[in-house]
Write a structure and sequence with these properties.
Layout: H1 2-7, E1 11-13, E2 16-23, E3 26-33, E4 40-42, H2 45-53, E5 63-64, E6 67-68, H3 73-85, E7 100-103, E8 112-119, E9 124-129, E10 134-138, E11 143-145
Length: 146
């Protein structure tokens, strides 16, 4: 999709995020879109609306009443600057692998665990429950440092 828009002379920004994931029991760096299924395209809606709307791979232009919603350039610049400086990286809620944690909510409340890694787009984390020797994926908000 980005290539098609660039072929027509449009400026396209599709920020990527590199994160460490476990793939087939091996730690691996994986690069994926920061905003899956979205990209930023700079265009004049009076001149290029149809071109963008009907480009291969485009489902919808984000906006209201068939009018695109502009994104302030300062937001794009901020994302670009963070990527260039290496600041933009996947968060693991501040936990480091091997850190002792305690589950403070949900069905595993009160159990001690060891933080393993972030999981599934970093919205969840993987922990090892010590008492039952089981690996589970959980919301990091339910964890507390010991």
């Amino acid at each position: 999709m980005a290539c098609r828009l660039q072929e027509h002379g449009l400026e396209v920004f599709n920020p990527k995020l590199t994160e460490r994931k476990t793939v087939r029991r091996k730690a691996k760096e994986v690069t994926s879109a920061l905003f899956p299924n979205y990209l930023f395209a700079k265009f004049d809606p009076t001149m290029c609306h149809r071109l963008v709307k009907y480009a291969a791979g485009v489902r919808k232009i984000v906006g209201f009443d068939d009018s695109p919603t502009p994104v302030d350039q300062s937001i794009i610049d901020s994302i670009e600057n963070r990527i260039e400086s290496g600041e933009l990286e996947a968060s693991t809620a501040g936990f480091v692998p091997g850190e002792e944690v305690e589950v403070r909510g949900g069905p595993f409340y009160g159990l001690g665990a060891v933080f393993l890694a972030g999981a599934s787009g970093m919205e969840r984390v993987s922990i090892l429950l010590k008492e039952i020797d089981a690996r589970v994926v959980i919301d990091p908000a339910l964890l507390h440092r010991i």
